[in-house]
């Protein structure tokens, strides 16, 4: 889990394989990073689009 200054839940995607949560993390840098939390694991991405697509893939729902 990231210990950034601000972590905001943007979306929750649910599907047949479970639930994934998409967070925006602002850590004081020039760009936020996006985290996908699913099944106890966290993945980080530089773009929200890539993170959102990954949410869908992880839970088995097209996003």
Structural commentary:
The protein has one helix at 48-59; strands at 6-15, 18-26, 33-38, 41-45. With 63 residues, it is α+β, with helices and mostly antiparallel strands. The model has no long low-confidence stretch (mean pLDDT 92). The chain is elongated. Strand 2 (18-26) and strand 3 (33-38) form a beta hairpin. Helices cover 19% and strands 48% of the residues.
Give a quick set of tags describing it.
63 residues, alpha+beta, four-stranded antiparallel sheet, 1 helix, elongated
Strand content: over 45%
Secondary-structure class = alpha+beta
Overall, the morphology is: elongated
Widest sheet, order of strands:
1-2-3-4
User: What is the end-to-end distance?
Assistant: 24 Å
Order of helices and strands: EEEEH
User: What does the average pLDDT come to?
Assistant: 92
Question: What's the total count of β strands?
Answer: 4
**The biggest beta sheet, please?**
4 strands, antiparallel
| Total number of helices | 1
Q: Give the uncertain stretches in residue-range form.
A: none
List the helices and strands and how they pair.
Layout (H helix, E strand, L loop, with lengths): L5 E10 L2 E9 L6 E6 L2 E5 L2 H12 L4
Antiparallel strand pairs: 1-2, 2-3, 3-4
Task: Write a brief structural summary.
Helices cover 19% and strands 48% of the residues. It has 63 residues and is α+β, with helices and mostly antiparallel strands.
């Amino acid at each position: 889990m990231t210990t950034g200054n601000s972590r905001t839940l943007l979306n929750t995607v649910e599907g047949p394989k479970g639930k994934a949560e998409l967070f925006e993390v602002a850590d004081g840098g020039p760009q936020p990073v996006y985290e996908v939390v699913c099944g106890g694991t966290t993945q980080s991405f530089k773009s929200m689009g890539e993170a959102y697509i990954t949410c869908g893939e992880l839970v088995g729902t097209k996003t």
